[in-house]
Each structure stands twice: as C-alpha cells, then as structure tokens.
Amino acid sequence: MVNVSATMTASTDQRSRVASLLDGASAKVILPILTMALVLVAWEYFCILLEIPPYLVPKPTEFLGRFYTDFANIGYHMWATSKVILMAFVFAGIIGVTMGYMIVTFATLERGAYPLIVFLEIIPKTITAPLFVAWFGVGLSSKLMLTTFIAFFPILVNSIAGFRSIDPRLYHISRSMGANWSQTFRFIQYPAALPYIFAGLKIASVYAVTASIVIEFVGSTEGLGYLIIEAMAFMDMELMFAAILATALTGLLFNLVVTSFERLVIPWMQYRQ
Amino acid sequence: MMLNDVRPEGHGEEGPEEIMQSAAPTEAQRIALSGRRVSKTFRTKDGENHALGPIDFDIKEGEFVSIIGASGCGKSTTMLITAGLMPATSGEIHFRGQRLHSPLTDVGIVFQDHLLLDFRTALDNVMLQQQIRRLDRNAALERARELFAKLNLTGAENRYPSQLSGGMRQRVSIARALVHEPSILMMDEPFGALDAITRNQIRYDLELLWMETKKTVIFITHSIEEAIGLSDRVLVMSNSPGTIIDEIHVDLPRPRPVHLGEYPEFTKYANRVFDIFEKIGVYRFGRRN
User: Which residues of A touch B115 (CB under 8 A)?
Assistant: First the structure.
C-alpha cells in the first residue's frame, strides 16, 4: 500500500512539473524553440528521405554549418546592411516626426500634402529601387536614400495619427496655464504621440530591412542583398540560405532594439488598458 | 461703479485706465469677471448659427455662480469666451476691470472629461501646472499633497489615470485646476460623466473645498440640483441663441446637505427653474390628472 501511493505521488509530481513548464512564462520561450527544432529536424529528414539535391534545397545542418564557418564574410555584409538601416532609421525618424507635427499643426499644409502622402503611401515603393540607383549611383547614398524614403512613411503616418489623437480641449487647459508652443510640444504633444510614433517605428523596422536588401539586389558591392545575389550567381544554395538566415536575424535584431527602446522611453504603456 | 461710468466715453484704453486702476474704489474691485454685450456666431456650411447672446453678466470675487441651461444653449461657449479661450463675435470680457485680450491665466479649468495625460501619474498630472508656470516645485508639491488629502485622493499619487476610477480622475482634474491657487475656477459640467452616488460625494467635497478657499467659481451644469446645491447665484440660459433669462440668488446656509430634496427652500428654488424651463420650452410636461 505504502509503495503504491509513493509511486502515484511521484508520477503526479512529474506530470505537474511538465504542466508548469508548458504554461507560465517559460512556455513563451520553450514552445517556439521546440516547434522550430521540430521543423528543422523534419526538413533534414525529408532532404535525406527524398534525396533532394543540395543545389536545390540544402539540409539545415549544411547551411547552419556554412553560417558558422563563413561567419566572418556573412558578418561583414550583415554590418554593411545594418549600417544602412540604422542611419536610414534615424533620418526617417527625425524627418517623419517633424513633418507629422508640421502637418497636424498647419491646416494648409495638411490640405496640400495629405493627398500626396496617401498616394505615396499606397504605391509599393520598393519598385523605385532602380530609379534610386540611377540617380544616386551604386553605393551607400542610393541605399540610404531608398531605405529612408521607405521607412519614412509609416513613421509619418503614425506621427500624424499620434498628434491628432490629442483632445483639442487639452489645449484650452494648456493655454490657460500660459504654455508656449515649445512647452505644449514637450509636455503634451510629444509624449502623447510617442506610442503612435513607436508603432510607426516598428513597421518601419520591417520595411527598412526589405528596402535595404532590395536595393542591394539592384546595385551594390556589399550587404546581405549583394551576398544573396552573389550566392545565386554561383548556385551556392548553402550560402544563399545562410544569408537569408542572416537577413532574418538582422530584422529580428532591429525589432528587438525598437521594442526595448520603447519600454525604456514609455514606461507608462504597461498601465494602459 | 466709477469704472462703469467712465468707460463708455473714455474709449482710449491706455491713458485714463492706468490712473483708474490705481485709484479704483473697492466697490469696483469686487467684480472679478464681467461680460458686456457678449455674443457668438458660428459659421457653418449651412450658413451662420447665432449661438449666443448678447449677454451681460458680472461675477463678484469669491462668488459661486452656476450657469444652467439645456444642452447646446451656449453655456460652454460662454465659459470659453469668459476664459479668453474663444474669441467672441462681439462684446467684451473684463477681468478685474481690464479688458481681456488673451487667455486668462489666473484660472483653473475642469471639463466634463478629466482630460488627464495618460502618460503621467496623478501627482505628475497636477504638477503640470507647476512645470508650465515655472512655479516653485516644493511649494507646489506641498500644495498638491494637501489637495490630494482634501479630495480623498491620498494613495493615488503615483497611479496612472487608467488605474483610477472615473470619480478619482475627476478629483485629480480638480486638483490640477487648483494647485497653482488661481483666483478663478471654471467648471464645465464637471460631474456630468459620473454616476449619481459619486456625483453627490464629489459635490459635497467641492463645496467644503470652496468654503475654505472662497474662489470665484463659474460652474456650468444642466443639473438643477447641482446648481442650487452649490451656488450663490444661478444664471438660467435659454436656447438658441443662448441668453440669460433669469437670475436666482440662492440664500441657503452652507454646507448644504446632499439630500437637498427634503428641504422646502430647495424645492422653492428648484420649482422656479422648472417653471422657467417649461415656459421657454426646455421641458414639455403635458397636463396629467
């Protein structure tokens, strides 16, 4: 009797330990990793089972290995692309927020510029990559221009929404306090628009990666887009997949930077309903 | 009185007025705010909408004045014009005998919605006054804590507006309007969005606070109970265009009980407002037997 009950407690103990591992905070990390590992194992297995030639689809072990052995080369191109994204991000942020503020503040500007913004917003802007190369040549300036141009729109549109979200009666209160425009901006408009601006920055971080890669396809001598095109020319699928992985990691990294920056700058967000 | 006598002829704003300011008799100083032939016409796409006036009013220092009327009768417009936040189409506002040309700053304003900044804690919302007006921080902080205590907000200092109940948010909003110790408090349906129980409590607290500080108050409401329960004087407004059609001096002892309905004096005042409202068509009570 004693023995039986002892084993029973042991098994329920184990089960509850597994259960507690699968819900709660750790599940947020463990479950996705498990899923990813499963996909990679299945991928590897199917490649072997169906005898897929490596010049079509490489095995995960092969391109992950390549990612490791060629990291010096991949890392160099990763930094070249990241540099463009980082600089474009700063430019797009400054120009986007400033223009958003001006457009909301001056009604004439809004009436004049808004239809144009909506038009430019809806056309797929990556198609202008060859144009930017033709105008600004192969190299940093054309990459920077296109990436800024593309990252700029979500930031602008969200800044406009942010500055517009403020109840106009709040300006009655600030004016009765005797606030000048810079105080109104600093204490009310800018912090009120920040969550919207960050929503724009998050979208921009995704767009910026795409934009920088596309223009590197068209005309560039370095960067992950260049590396992917090079891999295609040599039919080097392992390098191609390793480069795609590097691109995904770059995008992830930028998103992480924006998200952590957001937590730092707007700590009150967690209290919002 | 002297001010009023001289003004119509002496249109020159600079010369004679300065002399009068220094020699102004106490009688004239007792008027905090006055409106003369104030009217407002809004331009809409359907043409012009004559919303307000012309109205005349005088509000004494330390007086609690309510403006009561139906929705859209121009009560809020009157308040905004008086605060210098909206230009009048015609007429003028005087603050302590001087014509008002820019927003009044010796004032605290409370609207129906709390209009707190959701990125600031309750205390920081109140301290916005200190930051913008560049007041002494410690003195303002002390005053804010005092107000928090009087408004039953102790413990809410470091909470964000989204963590507070509707009634508490409105209390914070009142604290923000008083922390810089303005001489005038303007409230536009401040309890309009609150439930009946909260409304009674906050009304009672406001009266006690007012009795301590004796600020000049302009209180916009559509509640007869609030108007008579709080005011020294009630201005009754008619609809489109809004004009002041009656003035009721409320002579009841303070603090007034919350359950005013039981008092015959209250009923007398309330009936007077009901009668006016029925006469001008705000209420349409049929004959019931």
Answer: 167, 169-170, 173
